[in-house]
């Protein structure tokens, strides 16, 4: 089973706390969390930390986290922090559940 959560706009220090609550509440047991990042426009260190924390929380529950349709700003932030290889990246699919 997978759950899709759409993120848009900023993944920055200004939005991290609210997004943390959305990400953590979307985690469900051993389900795979697909994070639709196709509309992410800006990412800073807090956004990268947020994604790492969500990935860790998903793994602790027996699930996983996949970044779907990551935008150039997100790819650049993960590359600059040498963390791109830490995430599963996929293209969008047409059969998704929305959280």
What CATH calls the topology is Transcription Regulator spoIIAA
Q: How are the strands of the largest sheet arranged?
A: 1-2-3-4
What is the number of beta strands? 4
Q: How helical, in percent, are the residues?
A: 25-40%
Q: What fraction strand?
A: 25-35%
How many angstroms separate the termini?
A: 13 Å
Q: Overall pLDDT, averaged? A: 91
| Integer count of domains | 1
CATH class: Alpha Beta
Helix and strand composition category? alpha/beta
Layout of strands and helices, then pairs:
Layout: E1 2-11, H1 16-26, E2 32-43, H2 45-60, E3 64-68, H3 72-80, E4 88-90
Parallel strand pairs: 1-2, 2-3, 3-4
Helix pairs in contact: 1-2
Note the main attributes of this structure.
alpha/beta; disordered C terminus; 4 strands; Transcription Regulator spoIIAA; 30% strand; 4-stranded parallel β-sheet; 3 helices; 99 residues
Please explain how this structure is put together.
By secondary structure, this protein is an alpha/beta fold. The protein has a single domain (2-90), classed as Transcription Regulator spoIIAA, CATH 3.30.750. Helix content is 36%, strand content 30%. The protein has three helices and four strands. The protein has helices at residues 16-26, 45-60, 72-80; strands spanning 2-11, 32-43, 64-68, 88-90. Strands 1-2-3-4 form a four-stranded parallel beta sheet, sandwiched between helices. Helix 1 runs parallel beside helix 2 (45-60). The longest helix has 16 residues, at 45-60. Mean pLDDT is 91; it is low at 95-99.
